[in-house]
Each structure stands twice: as structure tokens, then as C-alpha cells.
């Protein structure tokens, strides 16, 4: 009787069974492929959204120029076939629908599975050591967001400073985090998988992509780095993301997702 009770408690903790559940440990990924390079000096603004079209032929890219709440939004579509970029007047209806699901706290098709939000203060220090801000962050923009001045980094004065950290987690496993970010936008650093899959992809340390599922599996995806705006296609077959390639340049990348 005791083992039956324990089994019931474990099942209750994990929620109802998902018919389309994805096991993160049973997925394999192709090598990342380049779609095109974008120059935010030309497109104007920092990347804000990335979304898949239902047929998988297009990606929607949104950039934001200026400071909120008065920033100017610009809208583009990117062809997966040839990397062509076209300006559009606003987000297509399919992009709005995709983004609404992608960045929600609740898993699509699994309302019991919800991202937890935690805020805390941590002590950070400069340098390559464990928990050092330069070790956590992978590019100059991200380091700047953590708060250090050039002088403090040069003089080693950034050590043992307190940082405000916002952490998103799924069933106790960290999905992603922001350090001293005044206005975090959830969808920029994670994306739910297909409806009923109970899985998501997030941006981890060093801009690596990490995969989590409803069974509390957690794994990194080899290849991607300095990533942002991960976007999992609605059929679950592809992952797209942006990879910083220069001060104002990003590569639009994608990789195939298959079950072993």
C-alpha cells in the first residue's frame, strides 16, 4: 500500500499525463544552419520578437528602436528558403498568435504546468571565476546590463557587488535569468514547445540553449551560443534563434529537432 501511495503522490506532483509529451533526453538536433545575417543598424532597433509562420516558411522579426514606453517598433518577415527580408506594416496575425503562446507562463495544452518567477539578490564579482559576472555573461551588451562601469571592471572594483536577479524556473529547474535588467521580456529568453508537449527551450548561461520537459529533464543543446529569442516551431520539428555576431549584427539560425 505504501508504494501505491508514493506513486500517487509522484503522479499528482507531475500533473496529468500528456499525450504529446516530449522527453528532452530522447531528442537529437542537427547542426545549426544559417538563414541570414541581420544588421540592426540598417533594420533599426534591437531584436524584440521572433515567431514562426504556421507553414514554417517564414519567420517574423520585430525590432524596437528607442526607450520604452515610446520606442518605435519595426516589423519584418524572413524567408527560410532564401533568407530574404521584407518589411511589413505590422505583425501578421499568425505572429501575434504564436507570440501569445510562446511567452505565456502556462504551457500550451497543459494548464497545470506553469513557469515560476523568483526574485532575489546575489553577490556578483568580475573575472572568469565561478559566479563572476564576466563568466555569466557572454557579450559586452549583457555584461553592461549587469551594472559594472568600465573603471570598476578595470580596477577590480566590481567584486562582491549585489545584483538583482530574476529567475524563471519550471518544476524547480532554472529556465533562464536576468541580472539587473529593469524590464525583462519573457519571450526573449524562452519558448514553449508544441501544444501538449510540456517542453520548452530557454537561454542559459553563456547564451546556450537548454531544454526542459514536464518530467523535470534538463539538458543543453550543443552548438548554439550567444543566443536570444529562441523560437520552437508549432510542429516541434525546428528551433530558430538569433545569435549575436557583432556589435549590431545577428545571425538568424535554425536547427532540426528529431526523436531518437
Number of domains: 1
Count of helical regions: 6
Helix content: 10-25%
Distance between the termini: 36 Å
Helix/strand/pairing category: alpha+beta
Largest sheet: 5 strands, antiparallel
- Runs with pLDDT <50, length 5+? 1-12, 128-147, 149-157
N-to-C order of helices and strands? HEEHEEEEHEEEHHHEEEEEEEEE
What is the CA-atom radius of gyration, in angstroms?
A: 19 Å
Could you walk me through the main structural features you see in this protein, from its secondary elements to its overall organization?
This protein has 260 residues and is α+β, with helices and mostly antiparallel strands. The protein has one domain. The protein has 6 helices and 18 strands. The strands form 5 sheets. Strands 1, 2, 16, 17 and 18 form a 5-stranded antiparallel beta sheet that branches. A 4-stranded antiparallel beta sheet has the order 3-4-5-6, covered by helices on one side. A 4-stranded antiparallel beta sheet has the order 12-13-14-15, with no helix packed on it. A hairpin with a 4-residue loop joins strand 17 and strand 18. The longest helix has 13 residues. It starts with a helix and ends with a strand. The relative contact order is 0.20.
Write the layout of secondary structure elements.
Elements lengths: L1 H13 L12 E3 L3 E7 H4 L2 E7 L5 E8 L6 E8 L5 E4 L4 H10 L3 E2 L2 E5 L1 E9 L8 H4 L3 H6 L4 H5 L6 E10 L2 E7 L10 E3 L7 E4 L5 E4 L5 E3 L6 E6 L5 E7 L4 E11 L1
Antiparallel strand pairs: 1-18, 2-18, 3-4, 4-5, 5-6, 7-8, 9-10, 10-11, 12-13, 13-14, 14-15, 16-17, 17-18
